[in-house]
Amino acid sequence: MADMEALARKHWLGDAAKWSDDVAARVLKHVVAAGGEMRPRVQQLERQQYLERYVWPHYDRARESPAAALTLLLVANEKQQQGLESSLWTLFSANSARFDQLFDDSVALLLRAIDGTADADAGLVRLAVVQFLIVCFGALEVDVVRAACLRLVGVSVWYHLLESRRERELAQWPQVRRLWRHASRRWTAGKRATAEEAARLCRERDVIARLVWDAADGDSVYVEKVVELLVDLESQLPTRRFVGVLLDDMQAAELLAPRVSLELARRLRACVAFPVSDVGGQPLAPEAARAAWYRRAAELQLAAYKLGHGGESEEELGSGGESNKELESSGDADELATLWAGSAGLLGSTSEFTAVLQRLSEPALRALAAAVNVRLANPRGQFERALVERLLAARYAHFEPGPMGVYPDEQLLYGRAVTAADAFGRDGALYAGLPLPKLGLQYLSVLDYLQRWFALLRVEMGGAVRTDLDAAVTRMQPCARDDDANAVGFAGWTRMALPISALAVVDVQRARVGEHQPSRVRADLSVDLSGFAESLRAEWAEVRVHDVLVLAQVRADGSVARVRGCTVDARLDAQGSVVEQFDGSADRGFRVALDPEQYARDTTADPDVYAALNVVMRRRAAENNFTPVLETVRALAAAPPELPVWLRPIFLGYGDPAAAVPRLFGAEVNLGDTFVSADHAQASFAQYASVEVAGEFAEGATCVVAYPEDTGGVVRVTASSGDPAWVASDVQAPRRNALAFTPAQVHAIASAQREGLTLVVGPPGTGKTDVAVQLVSALYHAQPGETILLVTHSNQALNQLFAKIVALDIEPRHLLRLGHGEAELDADERFSRAGRIESFLDRRLELLAQVARLAASLDVPGEFGDSCASARFFLVAHVRVRWEAYRRGQQDVFPFERFFEAELGRPLFPPGCDAAAVASGCYAHLERMFDELAAVQPFELLRGSAERSRYLLARQARIVAMTCTHAAMRQEELARAGVRFSTVVVEEAAQMLDIEAFVPLTLAPALKRLVLIGDHNQLPPVVQSPGLRAFARMEQSLFARLVRLGVPYVELDCQARARPEIAALYRFRYRGLGDLQPHVAQGAFAQPNPGFKHAFQFVNVGQQQQGESEPTPHFFQNLAEAEFVVAVFRYMCAQGYDARRVALLAAYNGQRMLLLDVLRRRCPELPMPRVSTVDQFQGQQADYVLLSLVRTRRVGHLRDLRRLTVALSRARLGLYVFGCRALLDSCFELQPVMAELLRNGDALTLVPEGHQSQPVIVDDVDSMAAVL
Q1: What pLDDT is attached to residue 1253?
Q2: Cα atoms in the Cβ-side hemisphere of radius 13 Å centred on 306
Q3: Looking at residues 703-722, what average pLDDT do you find?
Q4: Which of 344, 439, 465, 868 is the most exposed place for a label (fewest CB within 10 A)?
C-alpha cells in the first residue's frame, strides 16, 4: 500500500501527470499481486483518483496498454459498487468519443480473453468487462452509455439464431427484416463499411452469443456474473427486444443453470419466461401465453408424428441423421406415438416428458430436437445426450412462479438471499452478486414491477425478522432439559419472546373451488407468564388482533430449525374462550391464523412441524407492518391495476419523458388566492414578454391566469374579488393565503392544476411544504367535484402539512386524516374517521339550532330544527321564497336581518355599506349552511359506525391525508370503501420507496393529476440491508427514477433558510438556487454570529490523538472531534446562545452517542442541545449546527453527496464543520464542497470580545480550553 501511495504522489497526484505504460503495468501488478484480497487494492486506486487524474485524461495513449485498460475498468466498477455512478458518468459524458472508444476496447478485450489471446489474466479480464457491461446497462439514461450499449443488443445478434428460427421471426415481424438486411450488409468491409468498422460491428454482433457459449464452461463466479448480465438484458424492453429471442433460441437458462445457484437459475428462467412479447414489447395476457405454449406443443406433436410415419423429406424433418424408416425399425415409433397421440399436458410435465425422451434412441432424440429447433451443438462441439434431453424438456416446461408467502419461514430467514444480502460487500469479493431482482429505470409491465418489489420486500422482511429472532434466541439461552434430554428448555428470558406452552391446529376449512390449499387455517397458542414481571405481562397483554407473531422451533444448541408466521385473530383466556381483554391470569392464549398455502405444503412434507414449534416472538408495532404491506403487493400482483394511459408508459420507463407533463402554454389556470397583490402577480411571470393584470384585485382575490402560446406572448391575470365584505365579520372569517410565492413556486402550483404528471424539486429551505399546501388549496376550490389524496412519508411531515391546510379557507368537513399519527396533530378539531363522524354529528346539532333560530326570527311556527329533512323543507318552503321576493323587489326589508343581527350582535347594514352586497353575502351564507346540513344528513340516517365511515371516505371527504405506510397497509380496505381520487399529491416523494409511492396510485383508477414533491439530491429512502441497497437498488424512489428518466421538473430556486454564504456550500448541487431577497438579508441574517469571526467554517481536527475508532463493526467514533465540538458548544453557551437553537450533528450513530456522553461529562449544568445523526436530522433545521464528520482513515458514506447536502443544509445562521482536511481533500467527489468550505481557513477563528476585537485562532481542544 505504501508503495502505491508513493507511486501515486509521484506520477498523478502532483500538478502535471505524465503517462507511462510502465507505471500502468506496475499498477496492475500491484492490484493482482498474490496474497490478500484484490478489492482493497482496487479501492486504494480509486481513492487515489487513478481514474480521474491519470488513466482517463491520457486514455488516447493508455488504450494501447492492456494493463491500463484493465485497471481503468476495475476502478470504474469499484466506483459503481460504492454508489458513485453519478461522478463516473459525469466524467465519461464529458468526452463521448473517448467513452465510445473505451466501450469498444472493452468488448474487444473480452473477446480476446474468450479466445485465449488476451495479454492480461484472461479470468480477471472476463470478470472485469462483464461487470463493466452490467454497470453500463444499468445506466441507459446516460446518453453516451445508451448509444454504446444498444449497439450490442441490436438486430445483428440474430445472426446467431438458428436459420429456421430467424426466418420465422422475420416473417412475423416484417418491419424488422429491413433492419436485418441493413445490418447484415455491413459485416464485411466494402463500400458500406471500412475494415475497422466491419470488425467493430462483428464484435458487437458476436459478444452476447459468445459470452453464453463461453460461460457454459466457465467457473462459477464468472458464470454468475454472465447470468446477472443476461437477467439485466431480459429485464428491460430496449435490451430484451432482440436478445430475448436469442437467449430463448440458445436456451441460455438451461445451458447455464447447472453452473449457478438454484435461486439465480430460477431468476434467469423467470425473466426468459416472463409473459411479454420480446420484439413487440406488449405484455401477454395469461390466455395469450397459454395459446403460445399450445402452439409450440402442437409443433412438437406434429414433428413426432412425422418422425414416426413416412411421407416427409428429411429436410422437413430436420437433419437428425436417420430416415423415418430407420427410426421406425429402431422401436421409437411407440414412444413418438406417446407424444403425438397423447395429451399436450404430458409435455408440460417435465418428469413425464423426460421419461419418454430417455426411452428414445439417440438418433430419434436428436431428430426430434432438430425438428423443433432445439440446438444439438455449439461452436465448441456436439451436446451430450443428457443435455439434449434437458433442453428439449425445458423448451416445453411450464414455468411456475414461486410461492408468494407473506409470512417468514426458515428458508427465507436462513437462505442465501437474506444472509448474502445482509453480508453484501463485507466478504471482500471483487464483484459480489445476489439471486435477487434489481430495480432499474424500466419494467416489462406493472406485473413485473410488482413481482420484483414483492421479492425484495420479502427479503427485507426476512432480514429484519432474522435479526430480531436471533437476538431473542440468544437471550433465551436454549438448553437441553434435565428431565428430558430430547426436550428444549430455556435458561434465560427476553421481553420480545416466550416459550410456547401449547400449540394446536383447531380449524382447517376446505379449499375453495380451483384451489388446493385450505381456505383458512387457525391454531390456538398458549404461553405461561408466571414468574415474569408485571411490566412484561402488561406488554404481552397489548398484543392485539391483526398483530403478526413469529413462531419458531429452537434447538438446544441455539439453532433455529423451523420458522412460521401467523396473525392474531382473537385473545383467549385460560379455558380457551375468546375474550376482549386478558384477566390477571398468567396463562395467555391467542387464536392465530396460519398461512394456508404454507400449511398445505407442511402437511405433505412435514406434518409434525407445528407441534415442534416452541418459541413465539412479537415485534414492535413500528417494525411489524411487513405482512399487511406484502399482502397488499401480492393482491395487486394477482390482479395488476391499470394505470392511466397518460401515466403508464413513463411509469414503466418508456416513451417520451415529457409526454405526461402538463403544458401551460395556451392554457387557462385557476390559481385561487395564490397572488397577494397585483404587483405580486406582475412579478411572477418575468420570463414572459409582458403581463396584464385585470379585475378587482382585493385581498384574497381569486385569479385566473391565461398563458400565451410561448414566452414571447402576454400573460393575462384576471382577478375577481372574494366574498362580500360582510364575511370578514364574526359570522365567518375566511382564511386567505398571505405568502408571496416566488415565480418558480407559482409555476409549480400552476402546473399542478393541469392534468398530468408534475415533479417539483425543492432544495433545502425553498418552501416545498408551502407549495404543496397552496396547490392543494387551489385544486380544492377550482375542482369542487374532485377528491385529493395527500401522502407523505412520515407522520411528522403529514401533520405539519395538514395543519397548514386546516388553517386555509377549506371547510373542515371535507378534511380527513387517516392513521395513528392523527393524535399528534396540533388542531382544535379531530380529523380522524371517528373524530370526523363525531364532528359531523356535533355540527348537525349546531346547524339545526341555527335553523331553529332562523325560523324563530321569521316567525315561522314548526319544529324545523329537529332533523335535516325538516330543515331542507324549511329552506325550500320559506327561506328561498322570501329571498326571491326580496331579490325581485317585492319586499323592501331584507327578510333575514333579525337573524344576522342576533348572530353578529351588531347592525347588519352600517352607514355607508353596500346593502345589496351585504344581503347577497348573507344569503350565500345561508345556502352554504343548508348545503352543509344536506351533507350531514346521511350521518343522521346511517346508524352503524362502519356505514358512516365508508360514507365519509367515499362521499364526504375531499382531501384525505395519510402516510404511504398507512396506504400500503389499508389499500384493500380503502378500495372496498369506494374511495376514488382524482389527484394524488405526494410530499417527501424522494424519501419513499418506489412501491410506497405506487400503492396510493391504485386508489385513483381515474387519476387525472399526480404531483410528486421532493428532492432527489438529499437522502434516499432508508434500506437497512446492504445488498438490497447496493445490488438491488431498492433505495431508489419513484421520484428519483422519473428524474433519471428525464421527466421535466419544476425546481424551486429561492431558499429562505440559510445565510447566502452557507447556502453557497450546497448550491452547486442545484441548477440555479438563489436566495430569497430581502428575507435573507434582514433580521438575524444581517447580524454576525456572536463570538465567531465567520458564519461558517471548516475546523481541521486531523489526526489528533487516535483519530477515528471502531469499538464494534460500523460503530465509528472520534473522541478528539467530540471533545472539540462539545468545547465549542460550551463556548457558545458562555457567549449567550440558547442551547435549544443549537444542534450537534454526527455523520455516524456511534459519534452521536459519544457526543451525548461527552456532553453529560463536560457540561452537566448546561441545557442539552439537540444531538442527532445527519440522516435522522433530514427535514429539520437549527439556527446553529456543529457538525462532526468523524472519519480520519476513510471518507466513508459522506462520499455520497446526497448525505453531505443534508449535513450542510441544516443550519440557518451558523455552521461549523469538524473533520480531517487531508482525508477530505483527497476525495474527488468532495472537491467542490471543500473549496467552498476552506474559504475561511481550516482553523476555528473566534472573537470572544466582539467582532471589533482581535481574533483568536483555535486549532485544537487545548487551545479551546484556554479560551474557555
Answers
A1: 82
A2: 22
A3: 90
A4: 344
> Nearest-CA neighbor of 394 among 239, 276, 209, 268?
268
Per the CB < 8 A criterion, the answer to whether 935 and 948 are in contact is no
Which residues pair with residue 500 across a beta bridge?
Answer: 527
Half-sphere exposure of 571 (CA within 13 A, CB side): 16
**Which residue from 936, 927, 941, 926 is spatially nearest to 845, judged by alpha carbons?**
936
Mean pLDDT check: name the lowest of 173-177, 700-704, 1015-1019.
700-704
Q: What DSSP character marks residue 318? A: -
- Characterize 198-234 residue by residue with b for buried, 16 or more Cβ atoms within 10 angstroms of its Cβ, and e for exposed: bebbbbbbbbbbbbbbbbbebeeebbbbbbbbbbbbb
Say whether pLDDT at 241 is over 80.
yes
- What phi and psi values does residue 18 have, to the nearest 5 degrees? -120, 135
Q: Which residues contact 681 (CB under 8 A, 6 or more apart)?
A: 675, 691, 693, 697, 703, 717, 719
User: Residue 902: is its pLDDT beyond 60?
Assistant: yes
- Give the C-alpha separation, 334 to 340, whole Å: 10
- Which residue, among 1145, 1146, 1147, 1122, has the nearest Cα to 1198 in the 3D structure? 1147
Helices and strands, counts by H and E, the chain: 55, 31
What three-state secondary structure class fits 338? helix
Q: Is the pLDDT of residue 834 over 50?
A: yes
What is the identity of the amino acid at 408? Answer: P
To the nearest 10 degrees (0 to 180), the angle between helices 122-137 and 66-81 is 50
Task: State how far the Cα of 371 lies from the Cα of 365, in Å rounded to an integer.
Answer: 10
Give the integer Cα–Cα distance in Å for 509 and 488.
32
Residue 1169 CA to residue 1189 CA, distance in Å, equals: 18
Question: Which band of pLDDT confidence, cut at 50, 70 and 90, is reported for residue 1149?
Answer: very high
Grid cell for residue 810: 377549506
- Give, in order, the Cα–Cα distances in Å from 1119 to each of 367, 933, 1152, 1157, 1219: 76, 66, 11, 11, 12
User: 963 near 824, Cβ under 8 Å?
Assistant: no
8 Å CB contact between 414 and 463: no
φ/ψ of residue 1066, rounded to 5 = -120, 10
Q: What is the pLDDT of residue 625?
A: 85
Rounded to 5 degrees, φ, ψ at 887 are: -65, -35
- What percentage of the chain exceeds 70 in pLDDT? 96
H/E element, 16 = none
Of 468, 602, 621, 455, the residue nearest 546 (C-alpha): 621
Q: How far apart are CA 913 and CA 894, in angstroms?
A: 14
Residue 1027 has pLDDT above 50, yes or no: yes
User: What average pLDDT does the structure give for the chain?
Assistant: 90
Q: What is the pTM of this model?
A: 0.92
Give just the sign of the alpha carbon dihedral 987, 991, 996, 1002. positive
Q: What kind and span of H or E run contains 1244? A: strand 1244-1246
Angle at 148 between CA 429 and CA 128, to 5 degrees: 20
Give the span between the Cα atoms of 1095 and 1089, in whole angstroms. Answer: 6
Q: CA–CA separation, 860 vs 461, rounded Å?
A: 67
Contact 939, 951 (CB under 8 A): yes
Q: Nearest to residue 145, comparing CAs of 91, 205, 110, 103?
A: 103
Q: Mean per-residue pLDDT for 489-500?
A: 94
pLDDT the model gives residue 54: 92
Q: How many whole angstroms separate alpha carbon 657 and alpha carbon 1045?
A: 7
Helix or strand or coil: residue 715?
Answer: strand
Asked if 369 and 376 count as a contact pair (C-beta separation under 8 A), the reply is yes
DSSP state string for 999-1020: GGGGG-TT--EEEEEE-TTS--
β-pairing, 1182-1188 vs 1211-1219, is parallel
Rg (CA), the chain: 36
Summarize the chain as % helix, strand, coil (round to 5).
Answer: 50, 15, 35
pLDDT recorded at residue 785: 86
